């Protein structure tokens, strides 16, 4: 696989990134290690994790994913050097009291402690890309669509967070920094502060991007293009909706896939991916795939792989077979006619999973 540079950083990664939020919930440790090894064999050099994982988040699996990855590195000599490792510090608590006691803030001190803890769990001396998982500001994310100024309570400033990240860079604990679930304003402000005060420059933003959520293209893509910030696209298969597995049955009920994320976890169905409009739109795209001799997975992933906005697409899998299917989709090239048909569906359905 050809590698791409992430923003202004020295990091070069594959256009497919192995997402690991299933490790410790849907995937046990032995199978997770097998997936990691197979991903290397398929040419992937980039993995993404977070202190919050596994997903769906809960106290019992908090930090589990990083521990599983750390055990893999410890058991496989030389494996760590083959990976570009990204992790994330959780933002203010969103109904998760097990994260920093349910704090509504993310201070510079919190960032430093969280990074040190992630390094221990990952059993490594350095995290290549360290990201803020979601902003301290009250922003429309995780299904919210409106900014509400009166909800924007006092919080640690971006400047203070950047200063903490700068300490970690100076100490050699992280190489580059990134954001996640961020807005155009947030990206601009982090970059402005970095340039004004000679602090680390944001290299990446990890936001949702898929056929039923293309809100990145509503302004964030222009910001990232002009500021040379790379997009890491998460949920390219919309939590499974864009695989076609729910087309006939719906998310629950007779025929729904028992091990499907949306079937198995009620908390997932309560989010943006569980909206009736999201499933209805996904069915439209999935039928377009079938009409053109493609699987829904091939259409959805080829779309992300082909878009200029995306540097690397994060795939979350529960088996080696799923991993192979996702990597093989790199060879699929969508015609101009298919891309036009995709845009026509979007014009009618917009972004129901935003």
From TrEMBL:
UniProt keyword annotations, A-Z? Oxidoreductase
- What InterPro entries does its record include? AKR_Detox_Biosynth, NAD(P)_OxRdtase_dom_sf, NADP_OxRdtase_dom
Q: Does the keyword tRNA-binding apply?
A: no
Write down the Gene3D superfamilies for this protein, in alphabetical order: NADP-dependent oxidoreductase domain (3.20.20.100)
Query: What EC number(s) would the UniProt record show?
Result: 1.1.1.-
Query: To which species is this protein native?
Result: Ephemeroptericola cinctiostellae
Give a GO molecular function annotation for the protein: oxidoreductase activity
NADP-dependent oxidoreductase domain: which residues?
16-345
Name-wise, this protein is L-glyceraldehyde 3-phosphate reductase
What is the uppermost EC class here? oxidoreductase
């Amino acid at each position: 696989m050809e590698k791409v540079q992430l923003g202004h950083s020295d990091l070069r990664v594959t256009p497919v990134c192995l997402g690991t939020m299933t490790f410790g919930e849907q995937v046990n440790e032995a199978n997770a290690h097998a997936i990691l090894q197979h991903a290397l064999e398929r040419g992937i050099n980039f993995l993404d994790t977070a202190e919050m994982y596994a997903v769906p988040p809960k106290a019992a699996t908090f930090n589990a994913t990083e521990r599983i990855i750390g055990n893999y590195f410890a058991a496989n000599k030389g494996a760590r050097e083959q990976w570009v490792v990204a992790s994330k510090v959780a933002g203010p608590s969103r109904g998760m009291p097990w994260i920093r006691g349910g704090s509504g803030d993310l201070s510079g001190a919190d960032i430093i402690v969280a990074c040190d803890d992630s390094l221990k769990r990952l059993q490594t001396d350095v995290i290549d890309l360290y990201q803020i998982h979601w902003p301290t500001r009250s922003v429309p994310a995780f299904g919210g669509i409106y900014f509400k100024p009166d909800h924007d309570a006092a919080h640690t400033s971006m400047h203070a967070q950047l200063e903490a990240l700068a300490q970690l860079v100076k100490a050699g604990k992280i190489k580059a920094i990134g954001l996640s679930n961020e807005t155009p304003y947030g990206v601009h402000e982090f970059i402005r502060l970095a340039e004004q005060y000679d602090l680390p420059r944001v290299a990446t933003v990890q936001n949702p991007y898929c056929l039923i959520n293309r809100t990145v293209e509503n302004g964030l893509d222009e910001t990232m293009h002009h500021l040379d910030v790379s997009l890491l696209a998460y949920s390219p298969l919309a939590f499974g909706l864009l695989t076609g597995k729910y087309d006939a049955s719906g998310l629950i009920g007779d025929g729904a896939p028992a091990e499907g994320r949306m079937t198995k976890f009620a908390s997932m169905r309560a989010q943006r991916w569980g909206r009736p409009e999201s499933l209805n739109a996904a069915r439209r795209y999935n039928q377009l795939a079938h009409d053109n001799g493609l699987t829904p997975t091939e259409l959805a992933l080829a779309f992300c792989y082909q878009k200029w906005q995306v540097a690397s697409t994060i795939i979350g899998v529960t088996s080696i077979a799923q991993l192979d299917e996702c990597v093989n989709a790199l060879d699929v090239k969508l015609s101009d006619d298919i891309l036009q048909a995709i845009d026509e569906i979007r014009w009618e359905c917009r972004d129901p999973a935003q």
